[in-house]
Each structure stands twice: as C-alpha cells, then as structure tokens.
Write a structure and sequence with these properties.
single chain, 324 residues, alpha+beta, 11 helices, 18 strands, 36% helix, flat
Length: 324
C-alpha cells in the first residue's frame, strides 16, 4: 500500500532552516553543519542534533554552533549542490512525521534559474536518513518572497483567505541572511520588471558589528561564532564578564546604510508605492530593519511571524497544489 504524501514547506536559508509540516508542527534551527563532537558530560539528557546521511554523521543547528570543533556555513549561490545543503535537508527530514512528502520550497529571486537543479537534488533518489528512507512525490520551487505573499493570501487548506492580497498589487521585501528579495505581484502573479534582488542581508549586519567590536572587545569578537553574534544582535546586547553590553549604537551604524540600500532599490521599482495595495516586510531581518524601512510607506506592515512566513506560505501552496 502506497503512503499518501504529506504537504510540507521547506525554507532552507543561509541563516536559519525553517520547516512547516502542519499548522501545529513547525520548527527552525541555525543553518550550521559541524563535526559530530558530543558532550562528554551533560546533566539534561541527550540533546545533540545528530544527523546521519550517506554513511556520515553531523551535528546540525544550535548543537553544531555550540559543540562542533569544525563548523561550516555557506553564503554562495552554489551551496545547494554542496554536502552541507544536503545535510540541512536531511535535518529537516528527521522532523518529518511521514516518509513520503510533497514539498514546496524557494530560491532567491536572482537564483530562480537553479530551480531544476534543486528539484533534481530532492527527487533523484530516496533519502536514507538516520535509518529512515524518504521519498519526494512532488517538489515545487518558487521565488522565496512568494512564500510570505501566499501565507498572507491563503489559509491552511490552500483557499483564499485575504481577497485584497490575493487580487491586488502587492509588494514584498524579504530580508534574508545573504540577499534581500523585492517582489511585486498582482493577482498572485509576479511582475518581473518590478522584481529584484539586493545583495545584502542579515550576515552583512553580523560582519559589520563584528568589525566594530574588534576595536573595543577584540577577545569577544574573535571568540563568538557568526550565529552566536547574530543572536546577540537580535537581543541588541552582549554578555561580557557577566554584564550586558548594549549593542544598539553599533547595530544602528551598520543597519542604517543597509536599509538605505534596500529602500533605494525598492523606490526605483515602486516609486511612492501608491499603486500597491500594501507592502509586506518579511524574513529573518524584518524586525531588525522595520524601524528604518516601514516609515517610508503608510500601507506597509511586517507579516505575522516573519521568520516562518515563507515556510508557512510554501506549505499552504503545497496544500493548494494538492487539490488540483
């Protein structure tokens, strides 16, 4: 008897990996892959996120950041063809309640020509992951910011939930780890002439803040891994010698010119954006850049749970496709 595939939305980004298997089953972890070093002493039971694929074991996510001696994190276009990307997909599959899946995922707007390569990666052969074998019945790749648009437009069954978003002209700014994607769509169809990518994102903020810390706190700047510093930036403070150090001024000095670059591209595409029904701000950097971007448009807003918005939209689109 063939198992009916479940719907899933995979959002494997340069910063975080996000997955949605149902309205109540969604998770995320850092897109970091490391050597399988485990704690020799632990009081809270086994917590290591160990993934075994192709006969090799890896630590993934928070455990990789904290415990791996050697850590890999990629930011280049070709990473979807690397072993690290394959391990991140395997880490997602370990959370799956089923071995058969119909998946929607995404690529940056500028990289969408790589969609056939990504589909082939998923569907080429069964995935043997930690004693389980997974199959992909369907794989659909769409521009990343379409996920947030579909999340706003559709309900969990793939039906239209917001008629204004579904039938109007909408702008989406999706701030990721490596790229910021600017999408314009009308009636849920992309307008290519008003869609672009800006080669800036959350990791540029991390690098900029690290450079500033090198002057005042060089020991801390050298000791922190990228994901650890990124989490401190989200909190806007860093724990040093048992005390909190405010990172607000350092963050602002980096974010202000980054936001200006995003706004420059968006205004080139949209002008005042008066023709748009709304402007949606999404992605892992949405809350960080919100104060600098949203004042530009009175009809702009941050989507609900912006980190998960693309993955939720992918799931909802999978549900829509499953009705066809």
């Amino acid at each position: 008897m063939t198992t009916k595939p479940i719907f899933a939305g995979f959002d494997i980004g340069y910063y975080y990996t996000k997955v949605v298997f149902s309205p109540k089953l969604q998770d995320s972890w850092p897109s970091a892959v490391g050597t399988p070093d485990v704690s020799r002493v632990r009081l809270a039971g086994p917590t290591e996120s160990m993934v075994t694929i192709d006969g090799q074991s890896y630590l993934v996510g928070h455990d990789a950041v904290q415990k791996s001696r050697m850590l890999t994190r990629r930011e280049d276009r070709s990473w979807i063809g690397t072993p690290e990307y394959r391990v991140l997909v395997a880490s997602v599959l370990m959370h799956s309640p089923s071995e058969a899946l119909s998946v929607v995922t995404g690529l940056p707007v500028a990289f969408l020509d790589d969609a056939p390569k990504l589909e082939k990666l998923y569907k080429d052969s069964p995935w043997q992951v930690s004693l389980r074998e997974f199959h992909f019945a369907d794989v659909t790749v769409i521009p990343q910011p379409f996920g947030a648009l579909l999340d706003a437009a559709l309900d969990w069954n793939g039906n239209v939930a917001d008629l204004d978003v579904a039938t109007g002209a909408v702008g989406v700014i999706d701030i990721g780890g490596k790229t910021t994607n600017i999408l314009t769509a009308e009636r849920l169809a992309e307008l290519p002439a008003q869609t672009a990518s800006v080669n800036v994102g959350g990791w540029d903020v991390v690098r900029g803040v690290r450079e500033l810390l090198q002057h005042d706190l060089p020991d801390i700047a050298d000791a922190l891994r990228d994901h650890q510093l990124a989490e401190a930036i989200v909190r806007r403070k860093l724990r040093v010698f048992g005390e909190d150090v405010d990172l607000g001024a350092a963050i602002d000095s980096v974010v202000v010119p980054l936001a200006a670059q995003v706004l420059s591209q968006a205004t080139q595409l949209w002008g005042s954006a008066a023709a748009l029904s709304c402007v949606l701000l999404t992605g892992g950097g949405a809350l960080l850049l919100k104060p600098y971007i949203l004042p530009m448009w009175k009809h702009g807003r941050v989507v609900a749970e912006p980190v998960f918005a693309n993955a939720r939209g992918y799931y909802k689109y999978a549900a829509f496709l499953g009705k066809g």
